[in-house]
Write a structure and sequence with these properties.
By secondary structure, the protein is mainly α. Helix 2 runs parallel beside helix 15. It is a single-pass type II membrane protein; Single-pass membrane protein.
């Protein structure tokens, strides 16, 4: 598919004034990335993740070099060229997907396929595209079900797909319906429509019986394509389905061919409004969870992606609705920031409960594993409103990570945000997402501009391409993918690498 504008620049060609405080903070975040990356290089090179306390690597994703691949675009965007080149050499010489390993289709897609595609879009190096195609081909048999709803686990070597035993044979909503950005992009860049067809058929199947409130339970039967009685949530196992409805519309440049994604998303946002409650005494807005007709006053930190999503999608409405959703986004971001501010360490717990006893919120599960969702929303709100308050909140969160999570050999999570007791894991998404969003929060908006790039749910930026294939309806077919012409990349123009 041809780009509507020339050039695939990481930095938009326009003049900008850089705030000196922003520049200082950006350098501090870059230093954090260097510390995390060099610790990974020293103690866990080629492994999936680093255990900083014991100074060893672990293969939590089958030995696919998850942290390395997750970090490629962050290194590139920050101008860390030598580190990027060493990582590229490892991908060329050592990355092997032929492993007898039962991989999560979702995690492998968002981290590995997404990370490789983003590295390709940024650098123009075809090595990354070839590797992305290799791993995607190994994942494809997961979609071979009667309904087209994929199984969530597949053996990378043998191709045997199945679902985890604890779901009762069901597929998980977020895991089954959050591969659109990556697989559509892969079809565009290879000219092979099979990837796009698999993931678009999932959305068509769900749209066939889409409820009036647009809220789907987290369990789906892959044989029949029907939902099973289970939790409705914008947190774990539900979250990225709603995110990808909006972002697939953005990825397709908001053309008629992707209009059904926007329509489904707007339906789901009506449902989201029905889950919003406010606390006493401070009136913090939060998104509850639902099972059947009963509402549970609980919100995951994972659901803190929603303020950013609402802000990003608000501009597609008319003026009144746009302001309503932007205001809600700002309210929810304030709540998420207070997830952090309400603890002794100033780092958020995994989830929160809301009570009518005048306490506003209490930590439920009290660990912090370096998650990015709140910082992600602050990035979008700052980009879309220009309000520097969001930068201040992000800086406070960054300082709390520096104080509580930085050790000599990397970054660790906390077992308990109340006591500050540390764990022994540097999650790959800390480098892929948390540090990238913090860096962009203190960079001019001309770096990875939102009208040219869309971020997947692992914060990998993918180039926006207009979709001119025919609009899909209730049928199972999708339009033909046209040839894709990769834009030129102007590496010397990257901000912060003059």
């Amino acid at each position: 598919m041809n780009f509507s504008r020339s050039g695939g620049d990481v930095v938009k060609k326009k003049d900008f004034a850089d705030d000196p405080i922003d520049a200082q903070r950006r350098e501090k975040v870059k230093d954090a990335m260097l510390h995390a990356w060099s610790s990974y290089e020293k103690y866990a090179w080629g492994h999936d993740e680093l255990q900083p306390q014991t100074k060893k690597g672990v293969d939590s994703f089958g030995g696919l070099g998850a942290t390395l691949i997750d970090s490629l675009d962050t290194l590139y965007i920050m101008g860390l060229d030598e580190q990027f080149q060493r990582a590229r050499e490892w991908v060329a010489s050592s990355l092997d997907f032929n492993k007898n390993y039962d991989a999560s289709v979702f995690e492998t897609t968002i981290r590995v396929v997404g990370g490789l595609l983003s590295a390709y879009d940024l650098s123009g190096d075809k090595l990354f595209l070839d590797k992305a195609k290799d791993i995607a081909d190994r994942l494809l048999p997961a979609w071979n079900t009667p309904s087209g709803i994929p199984y969530n686990i597949i053996n990378l070597s043998h191709g045997n797909p199945h679902n985890p035993g604890w779901t009762g044979g069901n597929s998980i909503l977020a895991d089954s319906a959050s591969e659109q950005l990556e697989f559509i992009a892969l079809s565009q860049r290879t000219g092979d429509s099979k990837y796009q067809q698999k993931v678009e058929n999932v959305i068509l199947e769900l749209n066939r019986t889409f409820p009036d409130d647009g809220l789907l339970p987290i369990h789906i039967n892959p044989e029949r394509g029907t939902t099973s009685y289970s939790t409705i949530t914008f947190g774990a196992m539900g979250d990225s389905f709603y995110e990808y409805l909006l972002k697939a519309w953005i990825q397709g440049n908001k053309t008629a061919a992707v209009g059904h994604y926007r329509k489904m998303w707007e339906t789901s946002m009506k449902g989201l409004l029905s889950l919003v409650r406010r606390t006493t005494p401070s009136s913090f807005a939060y998104i509850g969870e639902k099972i059947g007709s009963s509402l549970n006053d609980k919100m995951d930190e994972l659901a803190c992606f929603a303020p950013g999503m609402l802000a990003l999608g608000s501009s597609g409405y008319g003026p009144d609705e746009s302001q309503k959703f932007l205001s809600l986004a700002e309210e929810l971001a304030w709540t998420c920031y207070n997830f952090y501010q309400s603890t002794p360490t100033k780092l958020a717990g995994e989830n929160y409960f809301f009570n009518d006893d005048g306490q506003d919120m209490t930590v439920g599960t009290s660990w912090n594993i370096l998650r990015p969702e709140t910082v992600e929303s602050l990035f979008y709100l700052w980009r879309l409103t220009g309000n520097k308050t969001y930068q201040e909140w992000g800086w406070n969160i960054f300082q709390a990570f520096e104080k509580n999570s930085r050790i000599e050999s990397g970054y660790v999570g906390l077992k308990d945000v109340n006591t500050g007791v540390q764990d022994d894991m540097m999650q790959s998404f800390f480098l892929a997402e948390t540090l990238k969003y913090l860096y962009l929060l203190f960079s001019p908006s001309s770096l990875i501009p939102l009208d040219e790039w869309v971020f997947n749910t692992e914060a990998h930026p993918i180039k926006i391409v207009s979709r001119n294939d025919r609009a899909v309806s209730s049928g199972r077919s999708v339009g033909q993918t046209k040839s894709y012409r990769r834009p030129r990349t102007r590496r010397e123009g990257r901000f912060g690498n003059k």
